[in-house]
Amino acid sequence: MVAINEGVISQLRRGVLEFCVLALLRDEERYGFDIVRALSAADGLVTTEGTLYPLLGRLRKEGVVETTWRESPSGPPRRYYRLTPSGHSLLNAFTAEWMRFRDSVNSLLDTGAIK
Amino acid sequence: MTTTTMHPLAVDYVDRLDRAARRLPRGERRELVEEVSAHLSEATDPGMSEAEIKTVLDRLGDPEDIVEAHWPDEPARPDRRGVHEWTAIFLLLFGGFLVLIGWIAGAILLWTSRAWNTRDKLIGTLIVPGGLASTVVVAILTGTKRKCISATGRPTICTPGPSTAHSILEIALFAVCVVGPIFTAVYLARRAR
Predict the structure, then answer these.
(1) Is there a contact between A25 and A83 (Cβ–Cβ < 8 Å)?
(2) Which has the closest alpha carbon to B91: B101, B106, B109, B81?
(3) Residue B109: C-alpha distances to residues A64, A72, B125 (Å)
(4) Which of residues 61-80 of A touch B (CB under 8 A)?
(5) Whether CATH 1.10.10.250 fits A7-111
(6) Which of A29, A59, B153, B193 to pair with B81, CA 20 to 30 A apart?
(7) What is the rounded CA–CA span in Å between residue B181 and residue B78?
(8) CB contact under 8 A, B43 and A40
(9) A44 — phi, psi (to 5°)?
(10) Where are the domains of chain B?
(11) What is the model's pTM?
């Protein structure tokens, strides 16, 4: 039996992960732990939760998300993340691209031909 | 903060992360450690068993891997310390002895390099203009004040001569002109990336 090269899968995962973060933030702002737990609940998307925090930092540095501190009902204040206008347009662009990609790959995997 | 109520294993984990993150820019390091600490205080409580804490830490992953994931491109980034940068450092240090032109050339190389940020470049230029050759300027300036030698060639007591405070100031100035440029050369060599 031939095993899938784990490197390929992890590259695929890494490539889409940041857009999954953006998608989580499309309609509401969330704090870090909330984002991490939501993504972990998705099957096969996150292997190590900790690496999501550097990703959040990078997204902020790139200006696609911004943060604000808010009081939490319990414990210390939390850093909330939300999309910036450029984050929204990046997410829209990726969504369109992903739909095309997904349709083509699915079609090939299902029928061995492009519909 | 919340760390006081965290399980010792979690505290230990945060310490490891903080150490692993040393090479990151200060602000990013602080933010990463803050976020992971917040994660731990949300995901754990003091009543948890050791095994439960370990599960939480396993899910987070190795601190070293987290830092490694920080900028995946970082390790592959080429070292920008080339001939350009080393020449700049050399000329800033010694170029002043070539009638200052060498130092000016060094400053131009410094400002045209992409290996340093503006702060580094300001430090490189201002500490100390002229590099080690600035000591010559200080020596000449202080030397002219000391012409208190009598006609016979024997030193005489200079009545209006420099006060002790004055000579301390001169020595300090001289020291700055030696230590400053050396410090800057080491600093620039380390900061160049």
Answers:
(1) yes
(2) B106
(3) 35, 52, 11
(4) 75-76, 78-79
(5) no
(6) A59
(7) 27
(8) no
(9) 75, 10
(10) 2-76, 83-191
(11) 0.60
Task: Please answer yes or no on whether A53 and B39 come within 8 Å at the CB atom.
Answer: yes
Q: List the one residue out of B57, B37, B53 whose CA is nearest residue B45.
A: B53
- Site from A49, A66, A68, A72 to mutate, B interface, most B CB atoms within 10 angstroms: A49
pLDDT in tens, B145-185: 555 555 555 555 554 555 777 788 888 888 888 899 999 99
H-type alpha helices, chain B: 8-20, 26-43, 50-60, 63-68, 83-94, 101-112, 118-126, 134-144, 164-191
Tokens 């732990």, residue located? A33
Nearest CA in chain B to A60: B28
Token pair listed for B184: 């800057």
DSSP single-letter state for residue B149 = B
